């Protein structure tokens, strides 16, 4: 038995599919290709040694970063949809407790209960410094 009520499951499914469509649309309009995992960034094709090249490298790095964020989000959404369909949604991945429906409605891709999420964020802040 899925821990979520049928109406909540349906609502979440609707939102996740909508979010995925929106995201795909955004990615498509930016990169010109939705099928490719790697974003097609023209600047990478002509990395020269000119000052011009350095500038477009910076720009492409920023675009790459955005695309990474979006493909990670897309992955999160895919996972959340899979869990909804398999009945595993609404269960904390760390401690196995039920995630409150209100929390899922606020953030459909959420995978952890509040306590575990807070713990994870604490770990990330202390254990892993900024990568730049
Ligand atoms: Zn938990």
List keywords for this structure.
zinc ion binding; binds zinc ion; TraR/DksA family transcriptional regulator; mainly alpha; DnaK_N; flat; 132 residues; Four Helix Bundle (Hemerythrin (Met), subunit A); metal-binding; Znf_DskA_TraR
Cα Rg: 19 Å
Overall outline: flat
**The CATH architecture:** Up-down Bundle
Bound molecules: zinc ion
CATH fold topology? Four Helix Bundle (Hemerythrin (Met), subunit A)
Between the first and last Cα atoms, what is the distance in angstroms?
45 Å
Order of helices and strands: HHHHH
The secondary-structure class comes to mainly alpha
Q: How many domains make up the coordinates?
A: 1
Main sheet properties? none
CATH class: Mainly Alpha
CATH superfamily: DksA, coiled-coil domain
Oligomer: single chain
Tell me the number of strands.
0
Overall pLDDT score: 81
Question: Which residues form runs of ≥5 with pLDDT under 50?
Answer: 43-49
> Strand content of the residues, in percent?
under 5%
Helix content: 55-70%
């Amino acid at each position: 038995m899925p821990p979520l009520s049928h109406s909540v499951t349906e609502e979440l499914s609707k939102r996740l599919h909508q979010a995925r469509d929106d995201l795909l649309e955004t990615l498509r309009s930016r990169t010109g290709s939705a099928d490719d995992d790697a974003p097609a960034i023209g600047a990478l094709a002509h990395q020269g040694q000119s000052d011009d090249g350095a500038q477009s490298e910076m720009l492409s790095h920023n675009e790459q970063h955005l695309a990474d964020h979006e493909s990670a989000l897309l992955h999160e959404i895919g996972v959340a949809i899979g869990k909804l369909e398999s009945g595993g949604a609404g269960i904390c991945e760390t401690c196995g407790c039920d995630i409150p429906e209100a929390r899922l409605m606020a953030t459909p891709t959420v995978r952890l209960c509040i306590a575990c999420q807070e713990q994870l964020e604490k770990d990330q802040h202390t254990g892993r410094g900024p990568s730049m």
